[in-house]
Specification:
It comes from Actinophytocola xanthii. This is DUF3558 domain-containing protein. The chain is of the alpha+beta class. It has two domains: about 5-175, no CATH class; about 195-325, Protein Transport Mog1p, Chain A, CATH 3.40.1000. The chain is about 15% helix and about 35% strand. The protein has six helices and 14 strands. The chain is globular and about 45 Å long. The two termini are about 25 Å apart. Residues about 1-20 and about 20-35 have low confidence and may be disordered.
């Protein structure tokens, strides 16, 4: 989960849930093969860092629920589809988000259907506005999710939309239909932020001395987290896709950081946490073809107690100042 419009803020919460205390991901594999008996993630998905998540879905599967179209992406890790059901009512579907199964206790006992000996679906969440299912690769401790979120007036169909979305994911895997990106040499797609940001630099930030680094299966984001009392503090670094970064409110400002055009946005809060976001745009991103003007984006986001937003923005800028020179030229 444009990268940081209000909707994208909602998706970010889900996205960060996909991080876990791991070092590295799964080994590299060739493009997926059809499921025959027990399926491993390597067999079914191929190299996790280059998956094109929009290849896991098909707009026509949502025809019974409204008019579906690909939306501006907000992540390299999932594909966003908007299903317009009526004026003022839509369901946004995020397809392909990966997380570590062992870090998701919410799925215990939530099995829906066995696909093969080591592959099954689970209900990962379900409420009046959001519904999610996961595809479990038990051998690799991996979970792939489809999440539907309602916007506008209530709908009774968001879980049905999730269901057909997951059915299409399974069908795509069974038919060897998972496609992979072939990033340009100067793309951010092949870079892992966990390898470019020093743990020591993050832990030197005010309040982050005890921060634990967490990675994600897709390798496009890295999270450091700790606590100040009951408040969770986070530094999140991600390579993603979206519209060219811009100021989202009156507190936003554009200024170069380490020689790169950058935008800082502040999100005040009357309760913790407050959020500071620093972004820099990169080269054009070609997915999906139906949505023009998309670029790769590098972002640094810091969560701090509500009264410490200035400090949080100083920390975000410090991380960006160290990271931007390590990126390929835009």
């Amino acid at each position: 989960m444009a990268r940081w419009a209000p909707l994208a803020l909602v998706f970010l919460v889900a996205l960060l849930g996909g991080c876990s205390a791991r070092v590295g991901g799964l080994p590299v594999a060739e493009k997926g093969v059809a499921i025959e008996g027990p399926a491993t993630a390597l067999d079914a998905l191929g190299e996790l860092t280059t998956i094109d998540p929009c290849s896991l879905t098909d707009l026509t599967v949502f025809d019974d629920f409204g008019t579906a179209e690909f939306e501006t992406p907000s992540s390299l890790d999932y594909c966003t589809v908007a299903v317009a059901q009526s004026p003022g009512q839509s369901v946004w579907v995020a397809v392909g988000e990966l997380s570590w199964l062992s870090e998701r206790p919410d799925v215990v006992g939530q099995k829906l259907e066995d696909i093969s000996e080591e592959l099954y679906t689970v209900q990962t969440s379900k409420d009046s506005t959001s519904c999610a299912q996961g595809l479990v690769f038990a051998e690799e401790d991996l979970l792939l999710e489809v999440t539907s979120t309602m916007y506008g007036s209530p709908s009774d169909h968001h879980c049905e939309i999730t269901q057909v979305g997951m059915e299409q994911v399974v069908a795509t895997i069974e038919q060897d239909g998972v496609e992979h990106r072939s990033p340009e040499p100067d793309s951010l797609v092949g870079l892992d932020p966990c390898e470019l940001v020093d743990d020591a630099a993050v832990r030197a930030l005010p309040g982050f001395a005890a921060a634990e680094r967490l990675d994600s299966p897709g390798g496009h984001q890295c999270l450091w987290q700790t606590y100040a009392g009951d408040v969770e503090l986070r530094v999140h670094v991600a390579f993603e896709a979206g519209l060219v970064p811009a100021a989202y409110n009156d507190d936003g400002n554009a200024e170069p950081i380490a020689g790169r055009s950058s935008v800082m946005n502040r999100f005040e809060s009357v309760s913790s946490p407050a959020i500071c976001l620093v972004e820099t745009g990169h080269i054009p991103f070609p997915e999906p073809e139906e949505v023009p003007g998309v670029v790769e984006v590098a972002s640094v986001t810091v969560w701090v107690p509500a009264a410490q937003l200035d400090m949080g923005c100083q920390s975000a800028k410090a991380v960006a100042t160290a990271l931007w020179p390590k990126l390929p030229p835009a």
